[in-house]
Amino acid sequence: MTTALPPCSILLLAGGRGQRLGGRDKGLVEWRGRPLIDHLYQVARPLTDDLILSCNRNAERYAAFADRLVADDAADFPGPLAGLLGGLTAARHDWLLMLPCDAPRVDGALLRQLRQCALHYGDKPVMIRQGEQWQPLFAMMPGMLLAPLRQAWDDGERSPLRALLALDARPCPCDETDPRLANLNTPELLRG
Questions:
Q1: Is residue 3 included in any domain, yes or no?
Q2: The CATH number of the domain where 169 resides is what?
Q3: What three-state secondary structure class fits 117?
């Protein structure tokens, strides 16, 4: 018998500079005829009634892909930890699943696996781990971590990986060659 997964909010991170793409807004770059963000939207939408998108520009275009938009407090693109804080602040559910906008091969099975791992570990953050390599932007965390993550931010931490490991993050194991985790964040990768 399968245990029912608790409801969760889902955060799609699309607030970066897009440096490897010459400053283009990554989530809106097309792959296989659709914006990268649309690929994630199609997978995430059926799993939640609280789809949040973190963006720092092009809000009018991103609005179609979320229930709510959040933006970083600072205008200088401070990084994904700022997006996570915005998502946790806005989340309506006790759990938040976070995904980067440049991983269009993510599927429902991977998200169910991540949610199942989180259910197993209780109040700990859970990140995908491929062998020894953590993937901090593929993560599931309880909303109660907002306060310690905010404190880490206030103390100068900017790395989601270090912040989540400091909170005793647990692994959700994936094969080291799992193509669903590929970040398509350069022109060459987008052509592949």
A1: no
A2: 3.90.550.10
A3: helix
DSSP letter at 108? Answer: H
Instruction: For residue range 157-185, list pLDDT tens digits in order.
Output: 999 999 999 999 999 999 999 988 877 66
Cα 103 to Cα 105: distance, rounded to the nearest angstrom:
6
Pairing of strands 133-142, 68-70: unpaired
54 forms beta bridges with 13, 70
DSSP letter string over 10-38? EEEEE-S--GGGTT--GGGSEETTEEHHH
Whether residue 176 lies inside any domain: the answer is yes
Distance between CA 113 and CA 45 in Å, rounded?
17
List the domain range (segments joined by +) for residue 54: 9-191
pLDDT score of 88: 97
Q: Are strands 133-142 and 170-174 parallel, antiparallel or unpaired?
A: unpaired
Closest CA to 2 of 143, 127, 113, 130: 113
Query: Which DSSP helix (H) or strand (E) runs through 89?
Result: helix 80-90
Q: What's the confidence (pLDDT) of residue 1?
A: 44
| pTM of the predicted structure, to 2 decimals | 0.90
Total number of domains constituting the chain? 1
Q: Lowest-confidence range among 26-30, 43-47, 79-83? A: 26-30
